[in-house]
Design goal:
The complex is a heterodimer of chains A (about 500) and B (about 450). Chain A is an all-alpha fold and about 500 residues long. Chain A has one domain. Chain A is about 75% helix and about 0% strand. Chain A has a two-stranded antiparallel ribbon. In chain A, a hairpin with a 6-residue loop joins strand 1 and strand 2. Chain B has about 450 residues and is α/β, with parallel strands linked by helices. Chain B has three domains: about 160 residues, 3-Layer(aba) Sandwich (D-Maltodextrin-Binding Protein, domain 2), CATH 3.40.190; about 130 residues, 3-Layer(aba) Sandwich (D-Maltodextrin-Binding Protein, domain 2); about 80 residues, no CATH class. Helices cover about 50% and strands about 15% of the residues of chain B. In chain B, strands 1, 2, 3, 4, 5, 6, 7, 8, 9 and 10 form a ten-stranded mixed β-sheet that branches. In chain B, helix 14 packs antiparallel against helix 15. Chain B is globular. Classes of the chains: A mainly alpha (about 500), B alpha/beta (about 450).
C-alpha cells in the first residue's frame, strides 16, 4: 500500500527529523525580516539533489509551511512582514501588539494559521486526484490557454500597475527563451555562448532574483533595524473560547484562501487580501479593522496558510505551479525525474502521499515550534546583519553552482540579482517575472505541439470549449480593472 | 555565556582545520600512474534520469569490487539536449580522467544542428546496454500492425500524429519508417518526455509514438483496463522479438525493414591514449557481466550487451551513415516566438516608460540608500567568483575571506563584532566544504 509506505517513510526518524528541521528553519527564516521562504526553499533545493525524492519533498514542504507561518512574527512585532504573505497581518497585528497585547496577537495568529493549513490540507487530499484525472482531457491547446490565463491572472491582480506587471511577465518570458528551443531542438538567442545552450537555469535565476537581490537591498539600505516589541509574561496559548468565537471566520477565510490558491499564478498575498476584505465587509463593526481588531488577524493568517494546500492542487494534478514557491517545488520534482500530472498518482503514489502527509505533519510541528520558541523568535528578529548576510551570500554561490557544477550559473545568479534589484527600484514586480519565466517553456512546448498537429492552424485555441473558456476568463480579468477604474473616474466626475 | 560560545566555535574551527590538513596530505601522496585520482563520468542529463539510473549501478560495482585503483565518480551536467555535458568532455584534457556516457543523441544532435560537433570528435571507448524501442498506439486504435499504420499515413499523408521530438533518435527512426514504406508521411509532433507522450496518446492528442521498453512496462496498465485508458505495442524495433513481450512481432517480421535501438556509448576526448581506453573498456566489460548489474538493468528493461574496440567503432560509423541519409527539417513552420515576445515587450516598455515620465517627480523610493557600501560588497563578491573561476585558489580559503570582508563592510569595521565575525567566517567557509563534500556528495568549485 502506497499510503502505508508514505506514512512509514514520514514517521521514520529521518522523515520526522526533516519535518522538524524544515518547519523550524522555515519559521526562523520567516521571522527574520528580509529573508523569505522562497529564498530559503531556493537555497535548500540543491541540498536535496542527492536525497530520496520523498525526503526532498518532505523538507521543502515543511519549509514552505514554516515560512508562511513565521512571517507573522515580524509583521506583528516590527510591522515588517517577514514574508510577502503576511503583509495583511501587519494591519491589525501590529496595532494590537502596540496596544500592549503582543502575546494575544501572536496566539490568535498561530491558531488561525493552523486551522487554515488543516482545512486546505483537506481540500488537497480530496480534490487533487479528481482534478488530475480531469486533466487528461487537456490537450496542448488547453494547456497553452491555461498557462496564458495564469500569466494574465498574476499580472492583473498581482501588482499595483497592470502595465508594469505585464511588462514584468513578458520580460520573464523573454529571459526564458535563450537555449535549445523546446519545439525544434535548435539553439536560439545564445549570443554565441555555448554555455547558454541550456538557457538560464531556474535555480540561479530564483536565487538571484530573491536571495541575491535581497542582499543588495540590505547592503545598500542605510537605516538600522527598528527595535521589536518585546513579549511580556502573559499567557500565549489560546483558550477554547478564542477558538469557538473565531471558528466561522477561520473556516470562511480558509476556504477563500484555498480557492484563490488553486488558481494558477497567484499565491498567498492575494488570498489573504481577499479574505481580509471579505471579513471586513461581512463584519458588524468594519470600522474596527485596522486598529488591532482580532478577526482581522485571524482572517489574514488563516487564509495565507490555506493557500498552501490550494496551490499544491494544480501543482500535483497538472504540473502548473500556483505561486512562486510552487514553481520551485515543481523544479524540485522535475529534478528528481518526476513529472506532475495524472500519471504521478499511478507512477509515484508514495511521493504524492508523502507530500500530503508532510503538509499535515508540518502544520502540527509548526504550532509546537511557534508556541515553544515564541519568546526566542521575537529576539531573532534583531540579529545583526553583518553575521547573517555574508553566510547567505556563500549559500547563494553554492546553491547556484551545485545544480550542474558550473561557475557559469553563479555568474547568472549574480546577473539576475542585479536585474531584480534594478527592476524593483523602478517598481516592476518580480512575481510576474518569475511566473512568466517558469510557465513560458511549458506554454511554448504545448503551443508548438498543438500547431504541429493541426498543421499550423491557431483556431482550435478558440474553438475547443475548455481552451476557449480559459482565454475568455483571461480577457475578462484583463479588462475588469480597467473598467472599474473608468467607472470610478466617471463617478468622481459626477 | 559569551565565553562558552567562543569556546565551542574555536573547537569546531580546530577540528575543521585538522580535517583540511589531513585531506591536503592525502593529495600530496598520490603518484602519477593512471589512474591516480578518481575518474569522472559525465552524464549529460539530470540525476535520477534514464542515463543516470543506468550508469550508477555500473560504477557502484566498479568501486565496490576495486577492479581499478581509483573509483569512477558521477558528474551530472544536464541541459541543452545533452550538448552541455558532451561539450565539457570534448574540451577536457585527453588524460582519461573525464569520460562521457551518452546515447545516440550524440549523433543526432549534430545532424539536426543542435550541436556543431558529433561522434567524430570523440574516441568511442565502448558500448554498453541496449535500449529496445517500441511503437505504441492506444489500445482501441484501428491499427493492428505497423503496416496498417504506415498505410494510413500513405492514404492521408501528414494526418497521423506521431510523437517524436525533432532531432531526437526517435525522429530519425520515424523518418526511417516513412522511407521503408514509400509514400507514407507522418505528422511528426514534438511532445516532450515519455510521461507527456503517454498522456497525449491516452487523451487522443497523438495517434502513435515511440517508447522505450522500460517506459512501456511502466505505463502499461493491467489487463482489463478500459481500452481508451491503456496502450498497446504495434511492433518492436529490435532485430529479434523480445522475451519481455510475448506475441509482439518486430517490424522486420511484419515486412517493414527497419530496426532501431538506442544504446549507451562511453566517449573519451579525442587523443586519449589507447591503453587508457582499453583499461576503461575492460573494466566496463567486467561490470556488465556482474550479476548484480545485470539484475538492475533487467529492472530497467535494458539488455546488458557490450562491445568495444573495432566492433563499437564500426557500429557507430554504421549508425552515422544510416542517420545521415535523412535530412532533418521542421515539419511545420513554427512562428518566430522570440520576435513576437520582443515586440510585445517593446510595446509595454513604451507604455510603462510613458506613464513613468508623466508621473516623474513622484519619488520612486524614499528609503535612504547607501550605494557605496552596496557597491563595495558587490565588488568583493565579483572578485570572489572571478578568483574561483580563473585561479586555483581553494574554495574554503576564498570563502573565509569573502565572509569576513563582507561582514566587516556591512558593520563598518565595528571592532566589537570582528572577532565573532572571524569565527563565523572560518566555520562557514570550512564547514560548508566539509558538509557538502561529505554528506551531499556535491564537489565545490
Amino acid at each position: 500500500m502506497p499510503i502505508q509506505e508514505a506514512i512509514s517513510q514520514l514517521c521514520s526518524p529521518m522523515g520526522l527529523f526533516l519535518v522538524v528541521l524544515g518547519t523550524t528553519l522555515g519559521v526562523f527564516v520567516g521571522a527574520i525580516p528580509g529573508l523569505t521562504g522562497t529564498m530559503l526553499i531556493a537555497l535548500a533545493l540543491p541540498l536535496t539533489y542527492g536525497q530520496d525524492t520523498g525526503y526532498a519533498m518532505t523538507l521543502l514542504i515543511s519549509i514552505y509551511v514554516g515560512a508562511i507561518s513565521g512571517g507573522m512574527i515580524t509583521s506583528t512585532l516590527l510591522r515588517m512582514p517577514g514574508t510577502p504573505a503576511s503583509i495583511v497581518t501587519t494591519l491589525d497585528g501590529y496595532p494590537l501588539a502596540k496596544n500592549g497585547k503582543p502575546e494575544r496577537a501572536l496566539s490568535l495568529g498561530v491558531m488561525a494559521s493552523f486551522m487554515g493549513g488543516m482545512i486546505s490540507w483537506g481540500f488537497l487530499v480530496l480534490l487533487s486526484k479528481p482534478i488530475a484525472q480531469l486533466s487528461t482531457k487537456f490537450g496542448p491547446f488547453e494547456y497553452f490557454s491555461l498557462v496564458m490565463m495564469a500569466l494574465v491572472l498574476i499580472a492583473s491582480i498581482g501588482g499595483k500597475s497592470l502595465s508594469r506587471s505585464l511588462l514584468a511577465g513578458v520580460l520573464g518570458i523573454l529571459f526564458s527563451m535563450p537555449g535549445i528551443s523546446p519545439a525544434t531542438g535548435q539553439p536560439r538567442l545564445t549570443l554565441g555562448l555555448t554555455a547558454l545552450n541550456d538557457g538560464f537555469e531556474l535555480v540561479p535565476v530564483l536565487v538571484g532574483m530573491f536571495a541575491m537581490n535581497q542582499i543588495l537591498k540590505e547592503t545598500t539600505s542605510g537605516g538600522a533595524i527598528p527595535r521589536a516589541i518585546g513579549l511580556g509574561k502573559k499567557r500565549i496559548l489560546p483558550r477554547w473560547k478564542d477558538f469557538s468565537s473565531h471558528l466561522i471566520n477561520m473556516i470562511r477565510s480558509s476556504v477563500i484562501g484555498t480557492s484563490i490558491g488553486i488558481l494558477p499564478g497567484i499565491g498567498a498575498n492575494i488570498g489573504s487580501v481577499t479574505a481580509y476584505a471579505v471579513a471586513r465587509s461581512t463584519s458588524k463593526e468594519p470600522e474596527k479593522f485596522g486598529t488591532g481588531h482580532e478577526p482581522g488577524i485571524v482572517a489574514a493568517e488563516a487564509s495565507n496558510n490555506a493557500t498552501i494546500g490550494g496551490a499544491l492542487i494544480p501543482l500535483i494534478a497538472m504540473g502548473i505551479p500556483g505561486s512562486v514557491v510552487e514553481a520551485v517545488l515543481l523544479g524540485a520534482l522535475v529534478l528528481h525525474g518526476l513529472q506532475p500530472g495524472p500519471r504521478l498518482f499511478t507512477d509515484s503514489p508514495v511521493v504524492v502521499y508523502t507530500i500530503m502527509g508532510a503538509m499535515f505533519l508540518a502544520n502540527v510541528v509548526m504550532v509546537i515550534v511557534m508556541f515553544g520558541s515564541m519568546r526566542f523568535l521575537a529576539r531573532m528578529a534583531s540579529i545583526p546583519r553583518a553575521y547573517l548576510l555574508p553566510v547567505i551570500v556563500l549559500f547563494c554561490v553554492i546553491g547556484s553552482f551545485a545544480l550542474s557544477n558550473r561557475l557559469f550559473d553563479v555568474w547568472v545568479m549574480l546577473g539576475f540579482g542585479v536585474l531584480g534589484f534594478l527592476l524593483e527600484r523602478v517598481k516592476i514586480p518580480l512575481a510576474p517575472f518569475v511566473i512568466g519565466f517558469v510557465l513560458w517553456p511549458i506554454a511554448e512546448t504545448k503551443l508548438s505541439a498543438g500547431l504541429m498537429s493541426t498543421n499550423g492552424d491557431w483556431l482550435p485555441i478558440l474553438t475547443r470549449p475548455i481552451s476557449a473558456t480559459f482565454i475568455f476568463m483571461a480577457v475578462v480579468m484583463l479588462l475588469i480593472p480597467r473598467l472599474r477604474s473608468r467607472f470610478q473616474r466617471k463617478e468622481a466626475e459626477l | 555565556m559569551r565565553r562558552v560560545i567562543h569556546g565551542i566555535a574555536i573547537l569546531v574551527i580546530l577540528v575543521l582545520i585538522v580535517w583540511k590538513v589531513a585531506q591536503a596530505m592525502a593529495l600530496l601522496k598520490a603518484d602519477d600512474s593512471y589512474p591516480s585520482k578518481p575518474i569522472e563520468i559525465v552524464i549529460p542529463y539530470d540525476a535520477g534520469g534514464g542515463s543516470d539510473s543506468f550508469v550508477r549501478p555500473v560504477i557502484k560495482v566498479i568501486a565496490d569490487e576495486g577492479w581499478i585503483d581509483e573509483p569512477f565518480v558521477v558528474l551530472n551536467q544536464p541541459g541543452g539536449s545533452g550538448t552541455i555535458g558532451s561539450r565539457l568532455v570534448k574540451e577536457a584534457r585527453p588524460d582519461g580522467y573525464r569520460i562521457l556516457c551518452h546515447h545516440e543523441s550524440m549523433i543526432t544532435a549534430e545532424l539536426s544542428g543542435a550541436a556543431n560537433f558529433g561522434a567524430a570528435d570523440f574516441e568511442v571507448v565502448a558500448q554498453t546496454g541496449e535500449i529496445v524501442l517500441l511503437i505504441i498506439v492506444r489500445e482501441d486504435a484501428p491499427y493492428e500492425t505497423i503496416v496498417d499504420l504506415l498505410e494510413a499515413a500513405k492514404q492521408s499523408p501528414a494526418t497521423i500524429r506521431f510523437g517524436a521530438n525533432i532531432g531526437s533518435p526517435a525522429h530519425f527512426t520515424a523518418m526511417n519508417l516513412e522511407a521503408a514504406h514509400p509514400g507514407a508521411k507522418f505528422n511528426l509532433v514534438t511532445s516532450g518526455g515519455g510521461q507527456t507522450r503517454y498522456t497525449e496518446i491516452i487523451g487522443q492528442h497523438l495517434d502513435a509514438g515511440i517508447f522505450s521498453l522500460a517506459e512501456y512496462l511502466k505505463f502499461r496498465s493491467p489487463e482489463g483496463t478500459l481500452a481508451d485508458r491503456n496502450i498497446r505495442v504495434l511492433a518492436c524495433l529490435s532485430e529479434k522479438p523480445h522475451p519481455e513481450l510475448p506475441g509482439v512481432e518486430t517490424c522486420v517480421e511484419q515486412g517493414v525493414d527497419v530496426t532501431s535501438s538506442n544504446a549507451y556509448y562511453w566517449w573519451a576526448p579525442k587523443g586519449t591514449p589507447l591503453e587508457v581506453q582499453e583499461l576503461i573498456a575492460g573494466t566496463l566489460e567486467k561490470a556488465m557481466q556482474y550479476p548484480e548489474v545485470q539484475e538492475r538493468l533487467a529492472e530497467q528493461a535494458i539488455d546488458p550487451t557490450f562491445s568495444d574496440g573495432e566492433a563499437v567503432r564500426q557500429r557507430v560509423a554504421d549508425r552515422v551513415t544510416l542517420l545521415e541519409s535523412f535530412a532533418v527539417e521542421a515539419e511545420n513552420e513554427l512562428p518566430n516566438f522570440p520576435a513576437y515576445i520582443a515586440v510585445v515587450a517593446l510595446g509595454l516598455l513604451i507604455v510603462v516608460g510613458n506613464s513613468t515620465w508623466r508621473h516623474r517627480g513622484e519619488s520612486l523610493g524614499d528609503e535612504s540608500v547607501d550605494l557605496k557600501r552596496g557597491v563595495l560588497c558587490f565588488l568583493v563578491l565579483l572578485a570572489y567568483v572571478a578568483l574561483l573561476e580563473f585561479t586555483a585558489l581553494p574554495f574554503s580559503l576564498l570563502s573565509v575571506f569573502l565572509i569576513f570582508l563582507m561582514g566587516a563592510l556591512i558593520c563598518d569595521w565595528d571592532r566589537k563584532r570582528l572577532l565573532l565575525l572571524a569565527e563565523i567566517a572560518l566555520i562557514a567557509g570550512l564547514g560548508t566544504e566539509f558538509i557538502f563534500g561529505s554528506f551531499f556528495g556535491v564537489s565545490l568549485p
